[in-house]
Amino acid sequence: MAGSRAGARGALVARLRRGLAALALLGLGGCLGGDKQTSASEASGSTSGAATSSTATTDAATSTSTSGTTSTTSSASGTSSTSGAEVCDPVETFGEVPSGDLPECDIWEQDCPPCEKCTPYANEGVSSWSDHGCAPVVARPKQFGEACTMQGSKYSGFDDCDKGLMCWNFNDEGVGYCIGLCVGSRLEPECDYPALCATSGDGIMLICLPLCDPLLQDCPGEDGCRPIGTIMEWVCTLDASGPDAGADGDPCEYANACDPGLLCTEGARVPGCQTIGCCATICDLGKPNTCPLTDQGAECVPYYAMGEAPPGKENVGFCGLP
Asked: Are 187 and 281 members of one domain?
C-alpha cells in the first residue's frame, strides 16, 4: 500500500513539475531571484549565479545611452542625435499596429534603438509568441504590477509596459498587468524583484513569475498563488482551470489547473477524488477548520512535512484527509 501511494505521488509530482506547460508557453527555468540575489537551482541540477548586468531606466521623454557616445538611429518611434546622448520622441499611442515582422533584437541585451524595447511577439501568421522584436515604448509606460493594455493581436508585442516588462495575463479585451522579463544571461538568468525566472523550451518566453504568499493569495490580476515543482516555493501563475473546473475535489493534472486559492494535490488525500490528482483549498493551520468537504472528513492538514517548511510557510496547509 505504501509503495503504491509513493508511486502515485511520484507520478503526480512529475506532472506538477511539468505544470507550467499548461500555461501554454512555459517550462521551469528553475531560477529564484530578487534584488539580484544568487539564483537557486531546480531539480535538474543547473545553477544560476548573481549576474552583474543591469536594466536601463527611462523617463517619460528620453532614453540615454550608458556609453555617452553620439549616434543617430532611425526607428519606428523616431530618434534624433545630440552631443553625448541619444534622444528620441516616444510615441503617445500606438495607433494602428503595423503588420509584418518586427526588427530583430537580443532580449538579454535589450539592444533596440532608444524608446523601443526588445519583447516577445508572434511573427506574422503565427498564433503565439515565436520571436523577439523591437516595439515602441510609450511616453508614459506602465510599471511592474500595473494594469496594461495589449494593442493589436494578443501576441503583437505592442503594449504600454516599460522596457524590460511585458503585458501579461491579459483578457479578451487585451487588459492585463505588467510583468518583468528575466535579466542577466541565458546561462545565469535572474529577476529584478523576488520572482522565479520561468523560460519556455525554445527560449522565446522568459518572464519573472512573482513570488507570493499562499495564505494571502496576493498575486496581481486573476493569477493564483501556487506551489511549483519540488523547489518548495510559491509563485503567481495563470489560472488554467477553465470555467467549469478547478473547484474542491475536481480532477487536476497540472499545477495551475485549480482555481486561485486551491492547489493540485495527491488524489488519495482529497475526499471523493477518483483520479491521481484533485484540487483542494489552501488553508491556515493556525485558524479554525473552515474547509469544504468537512462532512467527508476533510480538515486543514500541513502542506509541508514536519521541519521542512520554509520560514513564514509553517502554517500553510490544504483541505484534505489526515
From this structure: no
Measured CA to CA, the distance from residue 202 to residue 26 in angstroms comes to: 9
Task: Evaluate whether residue 244 is within a structural domain.
Answer: yes
- The boundaries of the domain holding residue 256 are 213-322
64: how many CB neighbours lie within 10 A of its CB? 16
Host H or E run for residue 191: none
| Residue 31 forms part of a structural domain | yes
- Termini Cα distance of the chain: 16
* 40: amino acid identity, one letter: A
Q: For residue 40, how many other CB atoms are within 10 A of its CB?
A: 15
Closest CA to 319 of 273, 270, 251: 270
Report the domain count for the chain. 2
Reduced to 3 states (helix: H, G, I; strand: E, B; else coil), residue 104 is strand
Contact 227, 217 (CB under 8 A): no
Residue 285, helix vs strand vs coil: coil
- What span, in angstroms and rounded, lies between the C-alpha atoms of 14 and 187? 24
Write the pLDDT tens digit of every residue in 18-68. 334 333 334 333 344 443 332 222 222 222 222 222 222 222 222 222 222
From 161, 192, 211, the end of a domain falls on: 211
CA–CA distances in Å: residue 108 to residues 20, 42, 74, 113: 22, 21, 22, 14
Amino acid at 69: T
- Is the pTM above the cut of 0.85? no
Of 1, 6, 28, 8, the residue nearest 278 (C-alpha)? 8
